[in-house]
Amino acid sequence: MTEHQAIDAAHQVMDAHIRALNSRDQAALASTLHFPHVRLSGTRLKVWETEETYFADFLARAGGDWHHSSFEDIRLVRAAPDKVHLDAEIRRFTVDGRLITSFRSLWVITHENGRWAAKMRSSFAAA
């Protein structure tokens, strides 16, 4: 696989992730992640060994007003044939489109066991 193909695959993971998240499709969401999955938010590290609690943990972090999210301004940081780093702005919204929060997040998308998915991310989110 070329770096260009890896970059395309990483963007496809991001697209699939946000679609699954917003449609609340837990199986599709889990398919965009490798487990164990790691998230560093501020200085707090969270590791999900399996997919079972991932979506419920997201809902607890996002808060009761959360309705949907978007990725904005996705920037390529670095790419190799089996790993891509993307810097993205994450936005969370209420049902009426009011912005709840916005923050930057570094996503590490890897090719493992024949599929592309997010292995880890580090963000500046408050929760």
Report on this model:
With 127 residues, the protein is of the alpha+beta class. Strands 2-1-6-5-4-3 form a six-stranded mixed β-sheet. Helix content is 28%, strand content 48%.
Structural descriptors:
127 residues; alpha+beta; six-stranded mixed beta sheet; globular
What secondary-structure arrangement, pairings included, does this model have?
Elements: H1 3-23, H2 26-30, E1 33-41, E2 44-48, H3 54-62, E3 68-80, E4 83-93, E5 99-112, E6 115-123
Parallel strand pairs: 1-6
Antiparallel strand pairs: 1-2, 3-4, 4-5, 5-6
Rg over CA atoms:
14 Å
Order of H and E elements: HHEEHEEEE
Mean pLDDT score, rounded?
93
Assembly type of the chains comes to single chain
Task: Write a brief structural summary.
By secondary structure, the protein is an alpha+beta fold. It has helices at residues 3-23, 26-30, 54-62, and strands at residues 33-41, 44-48, 68-80, 83-93, 99-112, 115-123.
